[in-house]
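Customer escalation, tier 2.

The customer says the design service returned an amino acid string that "doesn't look like it belongs to this structure." They asked us to rerun it and document both sides in this ticket. The original structure tokens are below, unchanged.
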């Protein structure tokens, strides 16, 4: 994606046990609803009671699957995955689900997150004589399960929970069962729903709604659920001493219509905008969002400030979905590949522009210049999250310390660097209040992580 300055989630996961449904087709539409969580590759694995069949490839869900390659995926239970890479580069060999044969039969997994001890577990597998075909920590998970202690999958999955560290939501497929796993800290969301006589698990509730499933509840941190013909049952609980949900699920990652802790993300983002207006008012004429992710917070800011809400930038909603890189002439066009200004709404106006985050700052400066070129008299930026000063090691491709603009500069310096008339961020307390929830990982803001982290490059396994 061209000139993107957002943190990237690495994947969305989906699973379904439904003997009376076309589970491959249901999984396709579930992944379609989770496409925002990863756009590099997609895959579906289906079990029929005896074996597991799979199709996966690079690209978007709609590019990877056709009627022809879905047709052979017959069975009663399936898992699906859509990926953005955090450990392991963007290659087909790292695409998921991973499928292996084991002494207990066929096994497939889909993984959302990042193991902080993945390197140690990988080296352990090598010492035990395992061969690995990918450079992803997700293959480490599947091999730990395939060769783990225990005579049942229940035992092996619960054993993995005592060894794996970091962030991991898993969908696990055997020849006739579906398992769902959420890590002990609950870093990323995972929910379960019901569809007729079938059961569905997914990264977000929006995927349940898309296929007509009824949301039942979120998995608890550290919970392991097994689903078969008798329905779901909890087979393990491994909760950490405290919850540490990723705050960026509220800020940016999850779809606005999804729910976490009983609240839609849209309402939480509107609340963040209201608090931002109270904390950091601006003497201005109009409030505009950076579309699309800044829209809810801009609505809240306008409501609380009394300033009119308007559109100032029109987003080309498909430019970010192409893998074709712009040529030199188009690179010179820059930010206009992604946004076009509405000059009628900007000319002569003092503008407050609302964004959900600033990571590297490489699109904010050109955006400010675009607004001024369209006639904006003043440009004041308000950000509905705190400054991002630290990388993420728990499943989010945030950036490195040198790349993070808030690590290199204070707020006043960033304001000058971006060419703004003023700049302010939402406080951490304000953000947490807006969520209406509790128990978060705020490591990217504070540097305090819920687990021990090891500073590694996402491509650490590429040469091993």
């Amino acid at each position: 994606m061209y000139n993107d300055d957002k943190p990237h989630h690495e994947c969305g996961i989906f699973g379904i046990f439904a003997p009376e449904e076309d589970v491959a087709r249901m999984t396709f539409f579930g992944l379609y609803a989770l496409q925002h969580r990863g756009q590099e590759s997609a895959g579906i694995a289906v079990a029929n009671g005896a074996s597991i069949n799979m199709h996966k490839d690079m690209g978007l869900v709609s590019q990877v699957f056709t009627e022809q390659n879905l047709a052979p995926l017959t069975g009663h239970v399936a898992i699906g995955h859509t990926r953005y890479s955090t450990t392991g580069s963007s290659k087909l060999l790292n695409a998921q689900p991973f499928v292996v044969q084991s002494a207990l039969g066929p096994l497939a997994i889909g993984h959302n997150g990042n193991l902080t001890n993945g390197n140690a577990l990988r080296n352990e597998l090598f010492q035990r004589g395992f061969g690995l075909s990918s450079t992803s920590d997700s293959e480490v998970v599947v091999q730990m399960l395939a060769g783990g202690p225990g005579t049942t999958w229940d035992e092996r999955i619960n054993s993995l929970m005592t060894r794996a560290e970091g962030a991991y939501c898993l969908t696990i497929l055997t020849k006739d069962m579906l398992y769902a796993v959420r890590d002990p800290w609950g870093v990323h969301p995972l929910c379960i729903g019901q569809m007729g006589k079938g059961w569905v698990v997914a990264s977000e509730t929006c995927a349940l709604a898309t296929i007509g499933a009824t949301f039942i509840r979120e998995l608890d941190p550290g919970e392991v659920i097994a689903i078969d013909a008798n329905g779901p049952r909890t087979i393990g609980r491994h909760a950490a001493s405290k919850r540490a949900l990723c705050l960026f699920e509220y800020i940016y990652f999850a779809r606005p219509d999804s729910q976490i802790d009983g609240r839609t993300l849209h309402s939480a983002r509107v609340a963040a905008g209201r608090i931002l207006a109270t904390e950091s008012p601006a003497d201005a004429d109009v409030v505009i969002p950076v579309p699309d992710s800044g829209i809810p917070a801009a609505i809240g800011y306008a409501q609380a400030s009394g300033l009119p809400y308007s559109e100032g930038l029109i987003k080309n909603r498909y430019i970010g979905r192409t893998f074709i890189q712009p040529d030199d002439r188009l690179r010179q066009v820059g930010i206009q590949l992604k946004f076009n200004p509405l000059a009628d709404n900007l000319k002569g106006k003092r503008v407050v522009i609302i964004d959900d985050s600033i990571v590297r700052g490489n699109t904010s400066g050109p955006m400010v210049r675009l607004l001024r070129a369209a006639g904006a008299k003043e440009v004041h930026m308000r950000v509905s999250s705190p400054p991002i000063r630290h990388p993420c090691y728990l499943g989010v491709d945030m950036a490195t310390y040198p790349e993070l603009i808030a690590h290199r500069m204070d707020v006043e310096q960033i304001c000058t660097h971006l060419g703004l008339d003023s700049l302010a961020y939402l406080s951490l307390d304000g953000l947490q209040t807006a969520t209406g929830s509790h128990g978060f990982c705020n490591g990217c803001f504070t540097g305090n992580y819920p687990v021990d982290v090891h500073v590694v490059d996402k491509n650490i396994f590429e040469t091993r």
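Tier 2 assessment: The sequence is consistent with the input. Confidence is low (pLDDT under 50) at residues 458-464. The longest strand covers residues 105-115. Sent an explanation to the customer and offered a walkthrough call.
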